[in-house]
Here is the input.
Amino acid sequence: QLGRPSEILRLFNVPDLPIRLTQSTLNKAKNKHDLSVADLNDIALNVQTPIAVFINQALKYHGLHKQRQDV
Here is the structure.
């Protein structure tokens, strides 16, 4: 559980429901995006404080973008 959406996310109509991230999703992201365990350490904070929010109206999908710290 990553908590509930921050005020920033709610401004973009992200539902005020618990944010859950499963182990399988983490593994998929780690492999697909070449992430290390260190990249995932602050994932709860990164989800709550994105630098951009992308909304796909057709799919009702919210995407978050957070800049990597080592960039």
Observations:
- The longest strand covers residues 52-56.
